[in-house]
Design brief:
The protein has about 325 residues and is α/β, with parallel strands linked by helices. The chain contains nine helices and 16 strands. It binds zinc ion (2 copies).
């Protein structure tokens, strides 16, 4: 399912195309894709809110499949192995960020479904050293939503600095937040959730939130940390106002409408605003390991690959409960 020209989701911008079966270059593997989860970033790319790096492009960066072909020089993978491919599709390994263990900030990073064709497809090519092993205990459809929403939510938890037992606010409660809350509860955190949707508030309470409210309501206790998932600067400002001294807001958004002007007093007392950009392979390994041990339950609806436009449209309209996952084989 290929994007040639970004347009509103309801106009169904993806088109089914028949491409030659890919063969792996040096260091690459080819996956027979079984499942690919749908991320809000895919929607932003398809609608043009996130500028395309190349067109046409096959979106999708929460890819699960089986290794079907192995390129020259690849070690550690065999035909038939199950593999996951996520947003970070490659990094140079040599820049200052990579050498400091922050490959998520690599200036030469390449992203799956943005720079390279992704998983809205029957086959996908990936760099073997950026493919991920997936724990047992999750089938392919279950595992897919962990690969972006799960891992980025986990990195946001780390960036927020929340400590075990700390008070954490989650602003917005989509697929990523439903996974982050399960990790936070596993760490014994008290969790407060702000979202407009009554259904999402209900889901948050089911998953262990001790308080839920609207974006403009303030949780009953000052927060140690907050994560914002909504692509709205007003929500970031609301989260900042809910922080106690020294707290951090981690902004989990690749695209934000704007940042509103705000009084410095909201930031004073060493409060911090931090963005969360991508994630490292280490983040992914840690989250996948935690997901298997907790175990994390993901909620999703399944669509056949050919209905990818419908999945995007439902996401745009806020109709998806949890995550949407494409069944690709
Ligand atoms: Zn994503
Ligand atoms: Zn680098």
């Amino acid at each position: 399912m290929q994007l040639a020209r970004p347009a509103a989701a309801e106009t169904h911008p993806l088109h089914a195309v028949d491409l030659p079966d890919p063969s792996p270059g040096p260091g690459e593997i080819v996956l027979g894709v079984t499942a690919c989860a749908v991320c809000r970033t895919d929607l932003q790319l398809c609608e043009g809110d996130l500028e395309a790096h190349k067109l046409p492009i096959v979106p999708g960066h929460q890819v699960v499949g089986r290794v079907e072909a192995i390129g020259q020089g690849v070690t550690g993978w065999r035909e038939g192995d199950r593999a996951g491919v996520a947003w970070l599709g490659g990094a140079d390994g040599t820049c200052a960020s990579c050498r400091a263990g922050r490959e998520n900030l690599c200036v030469a990073a390449r992203f799956t479904g943005w720079d390279r064709d992704g998983g809205y497809a029957t086959h996908a090519v990936a760099r073997a050293d950026f493919a991920l092993r997936l724990p047992e205990g999750f089938d392919d459809i279950d595992a897919a939503p962990l690969l972006c929403g799960g891992v980025i939510g986990y990195r946001a938890l780390k960036v927020s600095g929340v400590a075990p037992g700390g008070k954490l606010g989650l602003y917005g409660f989509g697929a990523s937040a439903t996974i982050a809350i399960q990790v936070a509860r596993h760490w014994g955190c008290r969790v407060f959730v702000c979202t407009r949707s009554p259904a999402e508030q209900q889901r948050a309470r089911t998953l262990g939130a001790e308080w839920t409210g609207h974006y403009d309501e303030r949780p009953p206790d000052p927060l140690d940390a907050a994560i914002t998932f909504a692509p709205s600067g007003d929500v970031v400002a609301a989260a900042l106002r809910a922080l106690g001294r020294g707290g951090t807001v981690a902004i989990n958004a690749i695209h934000l409408d704007r940042l509103p002007e705000m009084p410095y007093a909201d930031l004073w007392w060493e409060r911090s605003l931090r963005s969360v950009a991508n994630f490292t392979r280490e983040d992914a390994r840690e989250l996948l390991d935690l997901a298997a041990r907790i175990p994390i339950r993901t909620e999703y609806e399944v669509h056949p690959l050919g209905n990818a436009n419908l999945a995007l449209e439902r996401l745009a309209k806020g109709e998806v409960r949890g995550a949407a996952v494409l069944r690709c084989a």
